């Protein structure tokens, strides 16, 4: 499996970060960064990472299925994550979630038919004081109002 | 730009650079006493550094509140194995968002804290374990690390002191349990985030099976000011058994939610009224979580006279926790709050041990049914009972974290559960129905 | 011996070695602390929380499975608080566990059922929906029913730690956590069934036993596996004359909890439809069924006539038959038929080893030694495939005692994962002997031209990741591991295929490392024979440390066959034969009047018989049987009594579990022929016990304590002291190198072994990606 030169460079650095013989430590970062580039944790990626860090594919499978940010199938180009945990709930985060589901016609971890947007109801994302909060891919949006969400979803639907 | 305006009632020690132009850059840091504490510490013996921390009464800011100086003193310095520093930047406790700003606005303070920890325990390598969702902070930290390497504050023979130190970022991938220290270490080693059997504690067998100092971001960030100004000055800011300030994340139904640095011992009501600008829409206070969703809730009466410190909260059978304050007003449905909290723990239970794995899911199922109006009277006691059967019997404290708030809600807001009985619709549900995953 | 720790458990004063876990200390006192996830010998999990006990001065209940004993500790295992904790732990467990006990294979042997009976709540407070997922088939042998699984992780550990395979893992998290196989939807593993055996509930069940019987309907017969030479004890579950399953329920054998696929499942050749159940006699060129009386008469008459006419006999015995049968057969040949033309298939050069060790004490390792000795050197064999028990012992030794394992083999082996050093040799491993400095000249020539020049795929040194600056690279591969930081799992090796490196330097350094060991066991296969073994023993002597040896052989009684004198040169107990006869190959090529083959298939490779008359004892119509004049249907090991001697010279007893109609044990057949010939008196009774008594008196080394084997134990034969005064024929030694799924003729008729092979082939066709496990 081939990756971009930047990612290869990052991997090389990563593998040197952990004590000798402990390259397995690089597994989760490698999966995360590779997922960003290739879109999901495919079987091929599992085998590649297993080979590079010296474990069995099963050991990678055990890991990816544990962590909620590693997806075996691709999410949308814009992965919209809406927090409904307690602090956001108190600022109607749950309403934002319902609004997004209705508007896009998709549910938890589903992708719009055009593959542009996916939704995920997430647990606390560390933006509690600026609730309600959502994350689009890795970008935070704070103090989100229903109107803002509406506009955001519209723009993501169109954005190139 | 800061996420929220600071408050005049803050005591800004760790957050003193917040808001400075280019506050994250090494130049700003160096201009404002940056890395001076490290230089000072490099002239001290490890024992002196640890002693200073003990004097400061610094207690861990990750939630458990263990005295930091004591923790560092547990690292066996004679061990032939390498020793490591690990920063817990997994910040996932609902209600908590302080480590984020510490890293975003002042990453070098964290780096300097790690360097001093390295001096204190003879460690020369460390990792900052940052939750996966905080990708932008990995970039911020990586940039700061690169600057520090470039300017000779990391790497070999730092500033001619003869001390070597390497520090790296490491990303998580979405798992609350990886905030638990031993699960974090498993995750750092490329495994499932399942906690380890303890003892041995990380200080003795930690990262990659070597002695490790593992602390929260805020804990490390408190170290440079302590070394620079002396432990006593820090201790004096707080209360007798807990020194310094605490970054408090004020969330929920207040007018000015935000992250504020307050002295330990700050009165709860003053915090709500003056720092937070009072209850939103002038509503009445109903419930209060002092430090993240794992803490037992206080009702309004219990908040009177309470102060934000370990002892005051312990006296009210709760905990100071991580600093994630959640304020709930009179319109909040406590059944719904309990349900949301339990959905979180059921989702985040690692599944390793029986009581947590099965207990959280069972409670979640009952609460869903209950909130939808399908509850029967015996469910109320059953929920309390299930929680008590988990309490103290799980493999790691996540089980307790799920049980404690539930017990407190059922006990303190029992009448709200009764109001939901017999197919009655939720009295607080004005519009829409909550979607259950 | 460190001072014992004194503590009190349930008011009893208890002493235990430091480091002992409370659960074990209690058990030794007869106090059973309930546990699901704890399993002695494997890493600690503390996951099931069943073992919670009260300890004075500790605020919370403690898990007895992780708590080491301490001086003055006061433990209580049966208080009201403890009982309550157990009761509710079971309630938690049962929330999602289907209550299908009446149809569950485990019913009656289920630990969850037993515990619920003892500690559980009467009624369930759980009224929510249970999660249901359909049952899955992981392999021909292994079925998995996820809802029944209580996640005790025993299966994961036995596969990873015990077997060194790591084919099972845990996926997902929280309440949807599930045991998963290594190939996505199926397993690729040793198919040993250990996971099924160790599962406390009915989550893992075997394709062979599923829905066949209830445990209490079976009779349990402890006997010895008939396949490889490791000699595992297997307990047959017998119902109505059928073997329903094999396992090691009482764990009393030399193999304790271990069995491989053959020992556990491959008994199933016994009722293969092709099994012979009546004697066959050639009539007009065709084999036809006749009665036993007729067949015996034909054979006896032929034998008598041939003796009278001064005709020639050849006798080939088997390495599957019992010591009694082999002894009786050679006695028959030598004393009645008057011939020394007697042999069997030789699979390891035991003779030279015994000769080379003459005059040396305590030089033969036992199976237990492999678990206890500080170091072991494996030469040539792929132990995990060919000698699964011995490989298991080494792994356990490594995990529990950090034993140093060295492997010098032609290909990657499982031992690489934890060996201190692994060295690949290009050609036959026999060269290793030379390279280790046993013979001068280092004549590896073609395969290595000195430092750094080893060809790819040829000799190389496995990069050893075992030792890093942080210490050895073992660690729990799954779960929290064990509190004391002992080794607990195996790390998958990095690319171990042929890293060209300084081959000679590696061998030198191996030699130095071995010298520094306190003691050593050397295991070698048929790559070493004759003078090479003598050199190996010299090499062992040169190390200056106590060294023991294991000469690896095939099949359940290869070792016994040589001991019993099934060779033309040697009589029972290695006494020289005055007129050595022909060996197998010569017999097959000679124009003998009569060739008598007992349980062997030497004509398998398209050879045709030369002898005038061929009598064959067999279970199946093999290539050899097909060419016979008389075929006598023989019983298999599960249908007879007697003894067998394994690889390590340990004698164990077979116990008859079933009868197959029409077939007879070879000993009985021989006895009947003798009776029919009128020579029975000369040979003595054909009862296994009587023959064994004679063996004990007459065969060197076999004067072993009877009670030991009578009670199902193993007794090692005594060393053969004094040189063996004869040249034996190392050139005839050839191992079949049967892997895990092969076992000569028996393997060919085992449905289980064939189904595994077929499923492998099918998987290879659909998914040609290279196998991941180093096998
Ligand atoms: C379930 C669970 C989650 C935790 N999450 C975090 C976390 O996100 N961040 C953190 O710093 N500590 C967290 N902790 C606390 C850590 O286990 C540990 O006590 C802390 O990192 C030690 O650092 P300190 O002494 O500086 O507080 C968590 C603990 C538990 C039991
Ligand atoms: S309490 Fe048990 S299941 Fe829950 S997170 Fe801890 S170890 Fe995992
Ligand atoms: S046996 Fe102790 S927790 Fe399972």
Supply database-style keywords.
heterotrimer, A: 160 residues, alpha+beta, Arc Repressor Mutant, subunit A, Glutaredoxin, 2 domains, 5-stranded mixed sheet, 7 helices, 5 strands, elongated, B: 437 residues, alpha/beta, Rossmann fold, Ubiquitin-like (UB roll), 4-stranded parallel sheet, binds flavin mononucleotide, binds iron/sulfur cluster
Description:
The complex is a heterotrimer of chains A (160), B (437) and C (775). Helix content of chain A is 46%, strand content 12%. Chain A has helices at 5-17, 27-38, 43-53, 57-64, 86-89, 93-104, 146-158; strands spanning 78-83, 110-111, 117-122, 134-136, 139-141. The longest helix of chain A has 13 residues, at 5-17. Chain A is elongated and about 50 Å long. Chain B folds into three domains: 26-237, 3-Layer(aba) Sandwich (Rossmann fold); 245-329, Ubiquitin-like (UB roll) (Roll); 334-420, de novo design (two linked rop proteins) (Up-down Bundle). Chain B is 43% helix and 12% strand. Chain B has a five-stranded mixed β-sheet. In chain B, strands 3-2-1-4 form a four-stranded parallel β-sheet, with helices on both faces. Mean pLDDT of chain B is 95; it is low at 431-437. Chain C is an alpha/beta fold and 775 residues long. The two termini of chain C are 40 Å apart. FE2/S2 (inorganic) cluster binds at residues 35-38, 46-51, 63, 65 of chain C.
């Amino acid at each position: 499996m081939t990756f971009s030169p930047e990612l290869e460079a990052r991997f090389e650095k990563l593998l040197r970060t952990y004590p000798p013989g402990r390259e397995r430590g690089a597994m989760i970062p490698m999966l995360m960064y590779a997922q960003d580039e290739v879109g999901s944790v495919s079987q091929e990626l599992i085998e590649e990472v297993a080979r590079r860090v010296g474990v069995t594919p099963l050991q990678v499978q055990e890991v990816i299925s544990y962590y909620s940010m590693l997806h075996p199938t691709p999410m949308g180009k814009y992965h919209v994550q809406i927090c409904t945990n307690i602090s956001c709930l108190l600022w109607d985060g749950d309403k934002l979630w319902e609004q997004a589901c209705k508007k896009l016609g998709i549910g938890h971890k589903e992708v719009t038919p055009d593959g542009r947007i996916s939704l995920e109801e997430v647990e606390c994302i560390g933006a509690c004081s600026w609730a309600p909060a959502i994350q689009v891919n890795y970008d935070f949006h704070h103090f989100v109002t229903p109107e803002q969400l509406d506009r955001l979803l519209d723009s993501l639907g169109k954005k190139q | 730009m800061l996420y929220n305006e600071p408050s005049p009632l803050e005591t800004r020690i760790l957050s003193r650079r917040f808001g400075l132009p280019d506050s994250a850059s090494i130049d700003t840091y160096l201009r404002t006493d940056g890395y001076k504490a490290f230089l000072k510490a490099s002239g001290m013996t490890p024992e002196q550094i640890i002693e200073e921390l003990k004097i400061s009464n610094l207690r861990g800011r990750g939630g458990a509140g263990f005295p930091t100086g004591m923790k560092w003193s547990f690292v066996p310095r004679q061990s032939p194995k390498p020793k490591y520093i690990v920063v817990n930047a997994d910040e996932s406790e609902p209600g908590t968002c302080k480590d984020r700003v510490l890293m975003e606005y002042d990453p070098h303070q964290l780096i300097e804290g790690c360097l001093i920890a390295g001096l204190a325990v003879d460690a020369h390598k460390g990792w900052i374990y940052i939750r996966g969702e905080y990708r932008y902070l990995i970039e911020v930290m990586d940039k700061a690390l690169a600057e520090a390497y470039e300017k000779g504050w990391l790497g070999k023979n730092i500033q001619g002191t003869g001390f070597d130190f390497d520090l790296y970022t490491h990303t998580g991938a979405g798992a609350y349990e990886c905030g638990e220290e031993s699960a974090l270490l498993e995750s750092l080693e490329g495994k499932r985030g399942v906690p380890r059997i303890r003892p041995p504690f990380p200080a003795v067998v930690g990262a990659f099976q070597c002695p490790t100092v593992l602390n929260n971001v805020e804990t490390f960030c408190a170290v440079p000011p302590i070394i620079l100004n002396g432990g006593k000055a820090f201790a004096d800011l707080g209360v007798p058994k807990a020194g310094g300030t605490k970054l408090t994340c004020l969330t929920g139904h207040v007018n000015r939610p935000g992250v504020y640095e307050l002295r330990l011992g700050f009165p709860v009501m003053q915090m709500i009224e003056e720092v937070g600008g009072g209850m939103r829409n002038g509503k009445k206070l109903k419930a209060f979580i002092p430090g993240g969703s794992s803490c037992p809730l206080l009702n309004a009466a219990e908040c009177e006279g309470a102060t934000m410190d370990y002892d005051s909260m312990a006296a009210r059978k709760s905990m100071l926790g991580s600093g994630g304050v959640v304020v709930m007003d009179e319109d909040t449905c406590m059944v719904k709050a309990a349900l949301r909290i339990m959905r979180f723990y059921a989702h985040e239970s690692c599944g390793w041990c029986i009581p947590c794995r099965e207990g959280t899911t069972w409670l979640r199922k009952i609460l869903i049914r209950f909130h939808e109006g399908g509850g029967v009277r015996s469910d109320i006691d059953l929920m309390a009972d299930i929680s008590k059967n988990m309490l103290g019997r799980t493999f790691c404290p996540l089980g307790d974290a799920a049980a404690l708030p539930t017990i407190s809600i059922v006990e303190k807001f029992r009448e709200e559960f009764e109001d939901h009985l017999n197919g009655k619709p939720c009295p607080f549900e004005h519009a829409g129905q909550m979607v259950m995953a | 011996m460190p001072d014992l720790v004194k503590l009190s458990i349930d008011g009893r004063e208890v002493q235990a070695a430091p480091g002992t876990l409370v659960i074990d200390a209690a058990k030794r006192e007869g106090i059973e602390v309930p546990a699901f996830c704890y399993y002695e010998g494997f890493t600690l999990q503390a996951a099931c929380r069943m073992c919670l006990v009260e300890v004075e001065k500790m605020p919370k209940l403690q898990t007895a499975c992780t708590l080491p004993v301490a001086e003055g500790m006061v433990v209580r295992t049966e208080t009201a608080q403890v009982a309550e904790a157990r009761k509710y732990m079971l309630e938690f467990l049962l929330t999602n566990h289907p209550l299908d006990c009446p149809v569950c294979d485990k019913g009656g042997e289920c630990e969850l059922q037993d515990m619920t009976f003892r500690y559980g709540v009467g009624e369930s407070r759980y009224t929510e929906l249970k999660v249901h997922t359909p049952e899955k088939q992981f392999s021909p042998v292994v079925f998995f029913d996820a809802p029944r699984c209580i996640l005790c992780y025993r299966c994961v550990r036995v596969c990873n730690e015990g077997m060194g395979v790591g084919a099972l893992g845990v996926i997902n998290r929280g309440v949807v956590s599930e045991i998963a196989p290594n190939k996505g939807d199926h397993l690729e593993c040793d198919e040993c069934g250990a996971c099924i055996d160790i599962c406390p509930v009915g989550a893992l069940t075997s394709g062979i036993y599923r829905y066949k019987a209830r445990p209490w309907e079976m009779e349990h017969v402890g006997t010895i596996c008939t396949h490889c030479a490791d000699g595992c004890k297997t307990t047959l579950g017998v119902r109505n004359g059928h073997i329903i399953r094999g396992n090691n329920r009482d764990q009393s054998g030399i193999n304790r909890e271990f069995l491989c696929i053959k020992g556990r499942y491959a008994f199933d050749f016994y009722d293969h439809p092709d099994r012979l159940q009546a004697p066959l006699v050639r009539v007009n060129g065709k084999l036809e069924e006749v009665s036993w009386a007729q067949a015996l008469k034909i054979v006896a008459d032929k034998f008598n006539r041939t003796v009278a006419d001064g005709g020639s006999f050849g006798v080939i015995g088997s390495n599957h038959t019992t010591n009694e049968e082999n002894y009786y057969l050679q006695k028959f040949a030598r004393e009645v038929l008057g011939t020394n033309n007697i042999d069997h298939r030789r699979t390891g050069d035991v003779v030279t080893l015994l000769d080379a060790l003459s005059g040396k004490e305590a030089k033969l390792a036992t199976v237990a030694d492999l678990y206890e000795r500080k170091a072991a050197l494996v030469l040539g064999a792929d132990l995990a495939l060919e000698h699964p028990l011995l490989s298991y012992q080494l792994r356990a030794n490594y995990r529990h005692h950090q034993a140093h394992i060295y492997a010098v083999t032609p290909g990657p082996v499982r031992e690489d994962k934890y060996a201190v050093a692994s060295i690949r040799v290009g050609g036959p491993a026999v060269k290793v002997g030379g390279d280790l400095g046993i013979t001068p000249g280092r004549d590896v020539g073609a395969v290595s031209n000195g430092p750094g020049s080893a060809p790819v795929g040829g000799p190389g040194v496995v990069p050893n990741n075992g030792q890093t600056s942080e210490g050895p690279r073992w660690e729990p591969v799954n779960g929290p591991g064990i509190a004391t930081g002992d080794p607990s799992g195996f790390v998958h090796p990095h690319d171990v295929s042929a890293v060209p490196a300084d081959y000679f330097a590696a061998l030198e350094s191996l030699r130095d490392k071995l010298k520094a060991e306190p003691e050593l066991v050397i295991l070698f296969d048929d790559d070493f024979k004759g003078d090479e073994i003598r050199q190996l023993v010299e090499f062992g002597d040169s190390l200056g440390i106590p060294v023991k040896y294991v000469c690896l052989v095939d099949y359940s009684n290869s070792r016994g066959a040589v001991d019993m004198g099934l060779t033309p040169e040697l009589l029972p107990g290695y006494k020289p034969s005055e007129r050595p006869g022909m060996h197998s190959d010569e017999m097959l090529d000679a124009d003998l009047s009569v060739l008598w083959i007992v349980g062997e298939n030497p004509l398998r490779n398209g050879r045709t018989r030369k002898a005038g008359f061929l009598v064959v004892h067999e279970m199946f119509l093999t290539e050899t049987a097909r060419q016979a004049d008389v075929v006598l249907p023989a019983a298999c090991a599960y249908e007879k009594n007697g003894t067998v001697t394994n690889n390590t010279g340990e004698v164990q007893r077979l116990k008859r579990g079933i009868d197959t109609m029409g077939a007879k044990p070879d000993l009985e057949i021989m006895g009947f022929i003798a009776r029919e010939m009128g020579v029975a008196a000369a040979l003595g009774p054909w009862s296994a016990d009587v023959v064994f008594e004679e063996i004990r008196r007459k065969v060197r080394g076999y004067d072993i304590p009877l009670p030991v084997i009578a009670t199902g134990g193993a007794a090692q034969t005594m060393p053969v002291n004094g040189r063996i005064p004869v040249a034996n024929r190392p050139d005839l030694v050839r191992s079949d190198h049967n892997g895990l799924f092969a076992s000569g003729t028996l393997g060919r008729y085992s449905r289980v072994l064939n189904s595994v092979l077929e499923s492998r082939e099918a998987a290879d066709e659909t998914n040609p990606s290279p196998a991941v496990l180093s096998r």
